Amino acid sequence: MALVGNLSSDNLNSFNSHGYIVLESFASNEEIDSMRKRMDELLDGFDCSTSSVFSTKNQQKVTDDYFYESAEKVSFFFEEKAFEDDGNLKQPKELSINKVGHALHEIDPVFKKISCSEKISNLLRSLGYKRPVIIQSMYIFKQPGIGGEVVPHQDNTFLYTDPPTCTGMWLALEDATIKNGCLWAIPGSHKNGLVRRFIRGEKGVYFDQPSPSYDQNDFIPIEVKAGSLVVIHGDLIHQSFENQSSKSRHAYSLHVVDTDGCKWAQENWIRRTVEPEPLYAS
């Protein structure tokens, strides 16, 4: 039986021990199809001249209004390797986009239905959330051949609350394998606390500390089937490599923070003009 509601004690113990869990068959084939079809429609209507490039290595350079304003919009970000030297795309836009974010869950009805579903709320209740809000959403493509690397990081780095409360929910819309760029994580690394912060200052965004060096032998792959949900602790060290295969690796990602008994950091890159609505208030 697919687990789509409250987590079992074994799930919670595994999450607390390893910093992540995989919930197989969390999304139905119909839900997956609806999201992929809707994204095809959004891409079809997308004007390539109004976008940016996304990079987890050089994000401090992307300080334009497009990036900041994406917190409350549906914005499109290209892969770093999508362009020729003359600035033209190497291939069609549908195969050049890195991700779409960061407010799909608020603005688009199809993604809002999935994001605000009862099974998501039940999952958060079982993790102890009192007044959760989805602070960002992303449709990630991991394009064949050019899908970029996501360097080792912690979600609390980018979406910090005091105390830290971020949880990532990464839904596979296609099978994620080692070949096409699945997630990798260091089990138990969440127990070591937050390493660094991503700060928005007067002159742009920057990291307050350099990235530590990680032993790649400590990472294990998280290969999952389409429809599986990977629940990620905000302090878990995780990454993904470039997709050098001929198959894409679409995923839909949500990041949730609590707004009960904690405070959203003003130095975060996301600065909302309208407060997000909580999924529930217990």
Please tell me about this protein's structure.
Keywords: Dioxygenase, Oxidoreductase. This is Phytanoyl-CoA dioxygenase. The chain has 282 residues and is α+β, with helices and mostly antiparallel strands. It has helices at 9-18, 29-44, 65-69, 104-107, 109-115, 118-126, 155-158; strands spanning 20-23, 52-53, 74-78, 97-102, 132-140, 150-153, 161-162, 167-172, 183-185, 198-201, 204-207, 220-222, 229-233, 238-240, 251-258, 263-264. Strands 1-13-8-15-5-4-3-2 form an 8-stranded mixed sheet. Strand 2 (52-53), helix 3 (65-69) and strand 3 form a beta-alpha-beta unit. The longest helix is centred in the first third of the chain and has 16 residues, at 29-44. It is globular, with a radius of gyration of 18 Å. Mean pLDDT is 92; it is low at 59-63.
Structure, briefly:
The protein is an alpha+beta fold and 282 residues long.
Number of beta strands: 16
Helical content (DSSP H or I, runs of 4+): 10-25%
For the record, give the distance between the C-alpha atoms at the N and C termini, rounded to a whole number: 28 Å
Number of discrete helical segments: 7
Parts with pLDDT < 50 across at least 5 consecutive residues: 59-63
Strand arrangement within the widest β-sheet reads 1-13-8-15-5-4-3-2
Q: In percent, how much strand structure appears in the residues?
A: 15-25%
Average of the residue pLDDT scores:
92
Largest sheet: 8 strands, mixed
**Cα radius of gyration in angstroms:** 18 Å
- Please state the overall shape, judged from the principal axes of the Cα atoms: globular
